[in-house]
Amino acid sequence: MLKFVVLCALVATVFADCGVQVISPYLSKIVGGSEAVPGSWPWQVWIQDKVWSDFFVCGGTLISNQWVLTAAHCLHPSDTADSYNVVVGSHDISDSGESTASSYPLEQIFIHEDYNTITLDNDITLLKLSSPVSFSDYVNTACLPTSDFPAGSNCVVTGWGNQETAHREFTLQQVDVPIISNTQCNQPTWYDGHVTDNMICAGYASGGKDSCQGDSGGPFVCKGSSGAYEIAGVVSWGYGCADARNPGVYTKVSNYISWINNTISNN
To answer: What is the pTM of this model?
Structure first.
């Protein structure tokens, strides 16, 4: 069931303050998480389907003033950019009048050329906005990863997806989960070999905390050595939500640094 290193000089210099929060989050313990403080994850965006009355499609991560990282499974190869907007600075997706939120049309969609719709390998897409966003306390970029994060690293996933509760919350949710080794995740009673080297597992063997349907495409961020948050993963897939031995699976962004930088520099 879907849950839907060296940086290039441009990214490293122009966006030197990436991964920094002006507004601090509450990290109390999305399923098993808590509501985020408005503006505390300023790189979180959501994709809006203009054809279906501004319907929520997926989450995403702002990585520059004009580029968003999301999952390939969120969009179809035949989709056109003019069908979507990207909303930045939002906290409550049910509030069309949020003063901190701004909507930007898309200019281009770049689905990874090796995306596999069966295995979800290379589940990553770049979106180019039609114009640069304006940065604020509520809008900023996440850093691209400078290295891989080892198993046991405690990271954060955010999104507006299903919390598997009777009452659906439309405010941004957050949950902290540790990275699990792919060796563990590929055990027969876990994912039985379906997690590729282009993926990261994160969660708990016992379940209880996880991303879920609707969180797809959103950020899985870890603190780098500088203390800034880096986009380690993109919410991709998993069996169920917060089930035992079925943790969330995320596209491993560090494997795509060259693809990201080449796509941006060539477009």
So the answer is: 0.88
